[in-house]
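User: Okay, second chain of the day. Same drill as before: sequence in, structure tokens out.
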Amino acid sequence: MFNFRKILAVLLICPAIAGISQAQVFVIGTGFGTDCYNKTANAYASFLDAEQTCTRALREETMTAKNRAATYVNRGVLRMRAGKYEESLTDYADAIALNPDLAEAYLNKGSVYIYQRDFASALAPINKSLELGITDAHAAYYNRGIARENTGDINGAYDDYARALELKPDWDLAIMQLDRFEITPVD
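Assistant: Same drill. Structure tokens below.
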């Protein structure tokens, strides 16, 4: 039996490319669910092995809808890392269908759109993650800043990067983004 204990969201950013982000949700439990979590959280050695472990957890373990949704998100993260964006979007959709209040699924969905450089599509799921009270709101604001900047909303992007830094002081990635802006008074 899968024993759900914790969901954790983490944001990883490729700082050299302002338009790329990756948010992740992990599940800690027992059995294949734990193995799925461990392989997702610990930068698995083999994508195929990690993905198969998550798939096996979904196929063979009895889980609550909440835990199954989180496991779909874990597999979606693995697939997102591997560039399997459509498959990861399917996993996030399955997670949301099981648990519509899983804020991390929406943030991850927005991250896929950012990877695909479909910044306009990234905004709605990221906004939804914030509405749902995502635990790592700094990650959502940072990702939304990326999406806003790349859709031409420069003021909104600046505000989001500043909010991310406010929520996570001394965060180098947010500082780096804010340092690119020059504030000028409006006449």
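The chain has one domain: 6-179.

User: Thanks, on to the next one.
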